């Protein structure tokens, strides 16, 4: 069996506030194998966003191990983490997080800048990616000229432009209507099935989670369910919004 | 990579055009002021130096001093006590290069329909050496002209212009106080003296001619002042001392009594003037530098605002793989571009302003490559210095905090 893409062991995360330390994640443990499509659900405050940020190397756990692609990120410096975010992870946010000033092609090409790729090649790859998400004609448009669903497609194109192994999506459909959400989820499913990209996605909605193969349910910083989505109880699938 | 960063920086600056331009304006004014002030200062310095050079080097001027007559002290030069033979004896002193007695007066000159009033100096050929003043045409009168007090003259440029226009004055005869004088030569142009007089508005005649034929004098053989030149700057204190001793001896002045002459060291005075001009120039530069500093602080201010405003953008960039140094470089580049472009415009305005001042106010200006290079280097340094802190602040942000920033 192949090595897991994500391997986390006894992960703790605490926030230090004026009122004292607040535990957010308590001994979270799971593996994600290559090609898996995982949905993480949980109520607000259950720690799922914190978990996602740690998985995305944007934040560091207080305690525990996180091996990404077999490499322990606890011992990495800021530059090495930046490199992982650039090459290994693609990130899709709820709020799209496109640069409003740049056109879509430049937005998609942004991760390639930090890889030191020439401008012509950057734009070529960016346009290919836009093509892939069905926005090939919109390279010169600005983010505010297109719809939310289209913006999320651009964000996905940007996440994919460096051919990452792992795609992390933090409530990618949270700002979208049902129809557009379905289109975005169809895109994720296609990326997962056709290209074998490992996807970890946070959602509130059971019907979005249903696109995944596996469900992880968090409550109070602990995993309360981890298994195939088909076997999950109604309780674990219920909407958290 | 760097070109990508440059275009990113350019985009960010373009997006905030007005702010960028205003920030730049601080640099433009700072650099422009430095260039302009240095140009004006250097111009003044050059002018002073040119005046000093035109005066002649290592120069003493010996004036007839005050005399006391029945308890009444007369002012300096009231009684002529110096004579041509004093001058001749000074020539014998060691380290004295040349001595020129001078007997000045004012008279009206006439040539054909033109006339002109000017200062006429009776002197010896040594005067030209002492003043370091070559002829532009013709020849100098000789010692035999002095012995026989012939009516010959050398004209300064201004006099030649006013009497002769474009005509050559050589070998022409002019009339001074109704006597004919043969013009032997024309002096080269010297320009203004330190106190702003036109040095070319003068005529030289043999000292004996001035004394005996032109002005006459109460005391035969006396001159108003004597100019003496030491053969080196080092020798000046020594020469001053020996002139003093010799003249006291010749004038039979008892120990302890006041001299009836005074010696002025013109070079020392000139150096003071040069020093003053230099200090002025430095001060102007220093004041202008303050505006450059203020411009730099303006850059820092705006960059700090910009970093705060774009925290989210920084978070996005970090989330997709920007390293701290990429962010640092991006913001640093913006600061440097602003200061370098501001500097370019400032140089253009400063140089233009300098020549504008020259044209409008008739002030001498001197734009040196040095001042431009300095202004440029300082501007780049200001950009880096004041851009560094905000850029570093941006690069040190934690990705998660930057992304969450609203």
Structure description:
The complex is a heterodimer of chains A (241) and B (406). Chain A is an alpha/beta fold and 241 residues long. Helices cover 34% and strands 27% of the residues of chain A. Chain A folds into 2 domains: 1-88 and 165-230, P-loop containing nucleotide triphosphate hydrolases (Rossmann fold, 3-Layer(aba) Sandwich); 98-163. Chain A has helices spanning 48-55, 78-87, 104-113, 119-132, 148-160, 178-195, 206-209, 234-237; strands at residues 6-17, 20-32, 37-42, 63-68, 71-72, 89-92, 166-170, 198-202, 214-219, 222-228. In chain A, the strands form 2 sheets. A 6-stranded mixed sheet of chain A has the order 6-7-8-3-9-10, with helices on both faces. The longest helix of chain A has 18 residues, at 178-195. Chain A is globular. The relative contact order of chain A is 0.18. The mean pLDDT of chain A is 91. Chain B is of the alpha+beta class. Helix content of chain B is 56%, strand content 19%. Chain B has helices spanning 2-15, 17-55, 84-91, 126-130, 143-147, 157-164, 207-214, 236-250, 266-309, 311-319, 324-361, 369-395, 399-404; strands spanning 59-64, 68-69, 72-73, 82-83, 96-111, 114-123, 135-138, 152-155, 173-176, 179-187, 202-206, 222-223, 225-230, 261-265. In chain B, β2 and β3 (72-73) form a beta hairpin. In chain B, α2 packs antiparallel against α9. Chain B is elongated, with a radius of gyration of 33 Å. Chain B starts with a helix and ends with a helix. At the A-B interface, α2 and α3 of A face α1, α10, α11 and α13 of B.
What's this model, at a glance?
The complex is a heterodimer of chains A (241) and B (406). In chain A, strand 4 and strand 5 (71-72) form a beta hairpin.
């Amino acid at each position: 069996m192949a090595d897991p893409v994500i391997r986390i062991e006894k992960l703790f995360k605490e926030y230090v506030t004026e009122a004292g330390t607040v535990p957010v994640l308590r001994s979270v443990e799971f593996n994600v194998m290559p090609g898996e499509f995982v949905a993480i659900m949980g109520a607000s405050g259950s720690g799922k966003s914190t978990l996602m940020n740690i998985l995305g190397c944007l934040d560091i756990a207080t305690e525990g191990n996180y091996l990404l692609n077999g490499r322990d990120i606890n011992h990495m410096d800021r530059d090495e983490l930046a490199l992982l975010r650039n090459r290994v992870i693609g990130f899709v946010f709820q709020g799209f997080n496109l640069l409003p000033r740049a056109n879509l092609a430049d937005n998609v090409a942004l991760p390639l800048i930090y890889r030191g790729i020439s401008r012509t090649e950057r734009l070529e790859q960016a346009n290919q990616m836009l093509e892939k998400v069905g926005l090939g004609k919109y390279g010169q448009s600005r983010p505010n000229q297109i719809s939310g669903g289209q913006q999320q497609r651009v964000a996905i194109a940007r996440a994919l432009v460096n051919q990452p192994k792992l795609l992390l999506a933090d409530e990618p459909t949270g700002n979208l209507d049902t129809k557009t959400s379905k289109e975005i989820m169809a895109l994720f499913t296609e990326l997962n099935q056709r290209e074998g990209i490992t996807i970890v996605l946070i959602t509130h909605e059971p019907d979005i989670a249903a696109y995944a193969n596996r469900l992880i349910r968090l409550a109070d910083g602990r995993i309360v369910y981890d298994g195939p989505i088909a076997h999950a109880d109604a309780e674990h699938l219920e909407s958290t919004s | 990579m760097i070109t990508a960063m440059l275009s990113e920086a350019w985009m960010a600056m373009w997006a905030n055009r007005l702010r960028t331009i205003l920030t730049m304006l601080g640099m433009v004014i700072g650099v422009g002021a430095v260039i302009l002030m240095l140009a004006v200062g250097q111009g003044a310095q050059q002018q002073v130096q040119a005046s000093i050079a035109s005066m002649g080097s290592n120069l003493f001027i010996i004036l007839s001093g005050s005399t006391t007559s029945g308890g009444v002290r007369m002012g300096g030069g009231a009684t002529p006590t110096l004579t041509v033979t004093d001058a001749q004896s000074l020539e014998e002193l060691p380290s004295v290069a040349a001595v020129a007695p001078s007997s000045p007066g004012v008279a009206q000159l006439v040539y054909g329909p033109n006339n002109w009033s000017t200062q006429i100096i009776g002197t010896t050929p040594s005067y030209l050496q002492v003043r370091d003043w070559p002829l532009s045409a013709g020849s100098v009168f000789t010692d035999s002209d002095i012995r026989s007090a012939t009516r010959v003259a050398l004209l300064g440029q201004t006099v030649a212009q006013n009497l002769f226009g474009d005509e050559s004055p050589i070998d022409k005869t002019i009339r001074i106080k109704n006597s004919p004088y043969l013009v032997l030569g024309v002096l080269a142009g010297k320009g203004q003296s330190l106190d702003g007089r036109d040095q070319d508005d003068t005529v030289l005649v043999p000292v004996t001619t001035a004394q005996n034929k032109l002005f006459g004098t109460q005391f035969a053989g006396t001159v108003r002042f004597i100019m003496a030149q030491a053969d080196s700057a080092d020798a000046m204190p020594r020469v001053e001392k020996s002139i003093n001793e010799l003249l006291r001896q010749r004038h039979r002045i008892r120990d302890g009594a006041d001299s009836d002459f005074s010696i002025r060291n013109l070079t020392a005075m000139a150096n003071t003037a040069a020093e003053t001009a230099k200090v002025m120039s430095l001060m102007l530069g220093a004041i202008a530098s303050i505006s450059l500093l203020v411009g730099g602080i303006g850059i820092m201010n705006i960059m700090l605002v910009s970093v705060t405003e774009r925290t989210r953008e920084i978070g996005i960039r970090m989330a997709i793989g920007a390293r701290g140094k990429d962010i640092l470089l991006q913001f640093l580049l913006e600061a440097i571009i602003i200061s370098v472009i501001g500097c370019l415009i400032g140089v253009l305005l400063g140089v233009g302003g300098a020549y504008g001042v020259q044209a409008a106010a008739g002030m001498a200006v001197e734009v040196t490559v040095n001042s431009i290079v300095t202004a440029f280097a300082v501007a780049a340094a200001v950009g880096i210095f004041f851009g560094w802190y905000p850029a570093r602040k941006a690069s040190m942000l934690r990705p998660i905090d930057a992304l969450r920033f609203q």
